[in-house]
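Practice set, problem 2.
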Amino acid sequence: MSSTNYHLAQFNIIKLKDQLDSPVVKEFRDFLAPVNQLAEESPGFVWRLKDDQGESAANVETPYEDELIFVNMSVWLNYDYLKAYTYQTVHSYFLKSRKKWSLEIEGHRAVMWYVEEGQIPSLAEAKAKLDLLNQSGSSSKAFSMTDIYDADGSRLGK
């Protein structure tokens, strides 16, 4: 399996402290569009989940019953590009600051896996991957940001 024929999909969830229109999550809400735009302009970006208006995923119906759980999903050329966007841009501020507007979720909040080049993952597939990670731990089929695999199934060094 050549990694050049595969892209890296990532899915993450956040449980907000209140509804999206609440002052408690104003900073998070106000920066959704700029942070999403930054992702789209970042090297290695392929695709991200958007609502019917082509904006954020905040208005997308999720596979979760809890209406305070919001989802985000994107596809990248490889882990290095996703890592650079996640940790070396303003996005890292929101990771570090998430306790201001979100509640803890049991288990992993993010999962990664490989999709064939050109494939767009579904929300059902993404939820299943996160469930698999939480039930079985990292594997080449579903892995965490701290236990990375290559498309050929081998573990990557961080």
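Problem 2, part (b): a different protein.
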Amino acid sequence: MFDELLNLIKQNGQQAVVENNEVPNEHNEAVMQEAQTSIVDGLSNIKEPDQVNSLFESVRSGQAESNPAVQQMTNNFSGNIMQKFGINGSTAASIAAAIIPVVLAKMANRGGQGGAGGFDLGGLLGSLTGGKFGGGMGGTTTSSSGGLGGNLGSMGAKLGLDKDGDGDVDLNDLTKMFK
């Protein structure tokens, strides 16, 4: 999963990092890895179901930049590349804005589709949160007790968010919202 995330960052960071004269070429790979670290750390800090819902809703609505979790990831990434690689503040902020929200949106868009283009965002969230948020999202399973993810999925189904009619709300439903 983490390799998939780094590949997604590299695909979307070409212009912002590699083609950016303000980023020394010898730091391109490390800047991309720093973006991965910021996303992973940000997702692992999600503690409440409302934060998960808010993140997915902001991504779905194209307003990822206004989400507090996305802002934190963006700010952490920007600050880290300024400190570690000597990139000036405005350049670091523009790199972060060009990568973090875009990659999160593409993760959500690709999540649950399977195959070569699939990205299991629910599985990533589950692995980062010890399974708290993986169930009911991205095709991962929930325990018989329902778990937090299962509760989110069943609440979402009652609210009409079950777009594929399978009885739960997961990244497959989120994907259908973008089509």
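Answer key, part (b): The chain has eight helices and no strands. Helices lie at 2-18, 28-44, 49-60, 68-85, 89-110, 121-128, 147-158, 171-178.
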